[in-house]
Design goal:
Structural class: alpha+beta
Number of strands: 12
Helix content: 10-25%
Number of helices: 2
Distance between the termini: 72 Å
Radius of gyration: 24 Å
Length: 204
């Protein structure tokens, strides 16, 4: 009987040791697990000259206990009727102020996402005035890819989005550009946007 008790005690001790080692790994050594959640609304417009810019709110969620780092961000934009894809680097972190205007608050740089937390940033992606060819929005649908670098080795997360723009919005941009003013329009990057929709379901 005493032999069985000793065996059970030993097994319980081993189980506790394994659990402690697993917990230590889970908390201290497990690599960060980052999720990237682009906003369902974004803003875009000219820089006031020949350049163009996109303002995209992004939430970064770290599901593990170990802190993670966001090293770099870039946005790839392509009209579905064009073979050209424009690669725009993140240039600034911005904020929406009480006046409903977006202002830059910080130059883009690497930042951390602590364990079991989320970090939301509004990121300004710019096609600079001196870049060629010039970037011009045209009516229609665009595909976008957001690339988020989570390691120095080049490992990145890719998020796909889309947006559509109409002739009236294009006209707003063109008139502002003619006055050399920075202009901003707002549109959805997802079918889950809060924009009102009406859908005919009678055919179902």
């Amino acid at each position: 009987m005493e032999c069985y008790v000793e065996v059970i005690t030993l097994l319980v001790s081993l189980a506790a040791l394994v659990f402690a080692l697993f917990t230590f790994y889970w908390v201290q050594w497990r690599a960060p697990r980052i999720s990237v959640l682009p906003g369902i609304l974004m803003r875009a417009g000219s820089t006031g000259s020949t350049g163009f810019q996109f303002y995209l709110p992004i939430t970064f969620v770290n599901h593990s206990h170990k802190p993670g780092v966001i090293y770099n961000l870039e946005l790839h934009v392509r009209h579905l009727d064009s073979p050209k894809e424009f690669r725009m680097m993140a240039s600034r972190f911005s904020e929406l102020k009480d006046s409903n205007k977006i202002v830059d608050v910080e130059i883009h740089n690497a930042f951390s996402v602590f364990g079991r937390t989320a970090n939301t940033r509004m990121v300004r992606f710019v096609w600079w005035d001196a870049s060629t060819p010039n970037f011009h929005l045209a009516a229609g649908t665009y595909a976008m890819k957001l690339r988020t670098w989570i390691s120095r080795s080049g490992k990145h997360i890719e998020s796909e989005m889309h947006f559509s723009i109409d002739e009236d919005q294009i006209d707003v941009l063109l008139r502002a550009m003619a006055r050399s003013e920075a202009s901003v329009i707002e549109f959805a990057t997802s079918d889950l946007s809060p924009t009102n929709h009406c859908k005919d379901i009678s055919a179902k």
